[in-house]
Amino acid sequence: MTRVFDAPRELVFAAWTDPDRVAAWWGPKGFTTVSYDMDIRAGGTYRFCMRSPDGVDYWKQGVYREVLAPERLVFTFAWVIADGGLGQEMLVTVTFAAEGDKTRMTFRQGPFEAIAKRDDHGRGWTSTFERFAEYLATAFSDHPHTTEVDP
Amino acid sequence: MSPDRLDTTFAALADPTRRAILARLASGEASVGELAEPFDISLPAVSKHLKVLERAGLIARGRTAQWRPCRLEAGPLQEAAEWIEHYRRFWDESFDRLDHYLGQVQQGKGTRRGRKK
After folding, report:
1. Does the beta carbon of B112 lie under 8 angstroms from any beta carbon of chain A?
2. Beta-carbon separation of B100 and A6 below 8 A
3. pLDDT (tens digit, 0 to 9) for every residue of chain A, 151 residues total?
4. Which of A38, A39, A65, B30 allows an S-S link to A19, with CB 3.0 to 4.6 Å?
5. What's B110's DSSP letter?
6. Rounded CA gap, A34 and A37, in Å?
7. Overall number of domains in chain A
8. A127 belongs to a structural domain
9. What sign results for the dihedral spanned by CA atoms B26, B89, A62, B79?
10. Which domains does chain B have, with CATH numbers?
11. DSSP structural state of residue A7
12. Is this prediction's ipTM beyond 0.85?
């Protein structure tokens, strides 16, 4: 996913790495941040709780792999599930490129870290939503079991 | 969808040959020979790929001795697509809020915590 924000790169990067700022925007519409604890440095961990509009709390946690201001942020995340265990761990890579006064942010998320390690893909294997979703859409557009999802 | 099943599906899809095989099967059943045709690899190599896809539940193979047609099983793919769509929506909405937050900060309106005044 790529977005262009009308803000300088340093500010956008800060929005991702200053805990108070992250709390201001992280999560879908209608969610609020309830609690957060972030140690933002390579190897640091974080825990974050957001509350849905109907009052359900969702905890997520992870480890920062790379914190390279103001251009690159890499971290894992997993939801904390019912019995305190963790769901699928995912790897997120966000890069920030300056475009004049604006910032082009590129975001990648993949559930492939465990697979990459297991299969020994040296550089890891992450996927953008768009590439994969495009593949599904074009490969299966004529198939009865379409992968299109209505907005 | 269980994390293991998702893992297996994505691992199966992580190979371009396997993705191409699935794309071909989207147009209908095919034999191993037919599937191998576009690729410059051996039949045993194609069979290996088919085993991975079969184990992931992405294809099913017929039982007739001579002719074991492969067909696409859409369930796991549909689940993977739904998983992707769920996260795309999740991040899309977060980024909308980020956009709004950045605007507020630059106008000097928002506090760092984004609390309403």
Report:
1. yes
2. no
3. 899 999 999 999 999 999 999 999 999 989 999 999 999 999 999 999 999 999 999 999 999 999 999 999 999 988 888 777 887 788 899 999 999 999 999 998 876 544 444 444 333 333 444 455 556 655 554 444 433 343 4
4. A38
5. S
6. 11
7. 1
8. no
9. negative
10. 3-73 (1.10.10.10)
11. S
12. no
